[in-house]
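Chain A, query sequence.
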Amino acid sequence: MRKTLMGAALFALLTGAIAAQDEEAQPGAKILERTRADSALLLPQAGSGGSDKSRLNVSEQKQTEFKVEVEGCDKLKAFLSTPIGLDKSRKYALVIALNGSGYETADDLKSAARLSSGRDPLLLASLQYSAERAINEDISVIEPLVEPEKLQEAFGWLLKKVMTDQPVDPQRVFLFGGRGANDEAVAWARQLWEDDPDAFPFRACLYDGPMWGFDAEAAPPVPTVFSVMDWDVEGIDEKEKKRSPAAFANKLMARGVPAEYHIFKADFMTAEPERLIQIHRAAINRLGGPGAEEYPPDESRYLGTKTAADDLPWSEHKDPWANEVIAYAKSEDWKLAWERGNNVLNDKNIKTKEKRELKDFMKEFEKYVKSELERLDASIQKSIKADFWPNTWHWQRLKAMQEAFGELDWYKKKNYAQTLETLKTYGPAKRDQARKEKLFEAVKLELEGKRDEAKKIYQEIAGQKKDDGGVSTWPYAAEYRLSWWMSVE
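Chain A, predicted structure.
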């Protein structure tokens, strides 16, 4: 009965059907209000997140181990991962990470710590709650060290301790349930919500891998992100589909809870690929953070072709540092290329004579960048005059170069930033904005439970994939939503 009442309360809040004074009387009212606002930060989902071609930038972390001060949990170990150079005067997002089997937690936490980045450094904490027991010389098993109720008590203690001892932003606390441990994460989140909705600590719940025991009706009504690798759901039958993350995401959306579903290709042997980290990091970044990192669109949707004029003038250099700069530039990461070269030149621990080759190369590099910016700008200006989207290769490179050089004096004297701004407001951009607004309307209708109306709009927008050169994100976003649409009966 409780979960039914909570589902009804959430639905009413998201549709604005309850008066303000009544909202305040509902259990977890403030959490529900924040969920309503967060839906606009996460949705519409543009597609499966991340990019296989983008480098994962991570911030260096330090891991520490400490005792669990909970009666009956003396065999458990607690771990905390903090950014190097932690600034106690600022507030950090916190991720409670349950991943792996709860056995090799130190290594699992290091992997999960890749969620942290320089633009949004995070604190992460976890428990080691399982141990290996040998059956015989050839066989061993992983067994829990405490009962589920004690494990939840220990995680509650960990959460409270880290929030007390560390500079945590209480509005940015997240639960990450990785494969092998997502069932424990789901059970704990559900129990916390049932015990005290008003004190529910997590801004969002992030889950990876198959989750056959998830109950969408009883799940906490906070943003929920699911990710699966393609082989997770390959060949599953109709019965299994009804208990898959895609089905759970559909049920949450029908209930009024914003949910993302990501499916991506991955090697069977890769435990936590970079793409997975990119997906969940994006949700953390959006919810109270600096916003998600921007990834280049799928090259199959690029407008225009890449020609010899787009190739870099360098292939290999005799100086190893210059080769690093070239490698970053080839991956279109001009910011890292510029930073790497200049960091070496400014390193006083490296002798001047050892940097001569790099110094000469960086002068050549800067000269090329200035010339290339002129070429890119001229190309895009032609498209603006023609009221048509520009060559995507040129557009993406100009954006990357602005990120790298936008604060330099010589760059500010040019009009490249204005060119990029114009691309946000001219004809094709206005038409694209109209598609976006229509897609937001579909999401709103879906969260209100008007699934048939929402589906019609998704289908309408998906049919516009070829409009304006076929580079618009929103028709593909609508098509992606339809690709995992399921009945919620």
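The chain has a mean pLDDT of 92. The radius of gyration is 25 Å.
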